[in-house]
Amino acid sequence: MSTESLNRTSEIVETPSQYVEAPKRVNVDVLKQRLLEEKKKEKVKRTIILSSVIVSLGALTMLTY
């Protein structure tokens, strides 16, 4: 095995086609939709937590009487 073949295989050839540039534009409607979905999820989480606290307090009240 010659060292020339090892050197050729170990070289990394970089071509400009390997680098893909990200688009510079941002779709505002998509960002607004994501924000609305995130707010909706947070509202659902808050509602679940608040209702579980109220149910827990109600159950504790019922157990104490």
Summary?
By secondary structure, the protein is an all-alpha fold. The protein contains two helices and no strands.
Please state roughly what percent of the residues sit in beta strands, choosing from under 5%, 5-15%, 15-25%, 25-35%, 35-45% or over 45%.
Answer: under 5%
Poorly predicted segments: none
Helical coverage, percent range = 55-70%
Helix and strand element order? HH
Count of distinct strands: 0
- Structural class determined from secondary elements: mainly alpha
Outline the biggest β-sheet: none
What is the gyration radius calculated from CA atoms? 30 Å
What is the CA–CA distance across the termini? 89 Å
Shape: elongated
pLDDT average, as an integer? 83
**Count of discrete alpha- or pi-helical segments spanning 4 or more residues:** 2
Textual characterization of the structure:
With 65 residues, the chain is mainly alpha-helical. The protein is 69% helix and 0% strand. It has 2 helices and no strands. The protein has helices spanning 3-10, 28-64.
Summarize the topology.
Blueprint: H1 3-10, H2 28-64
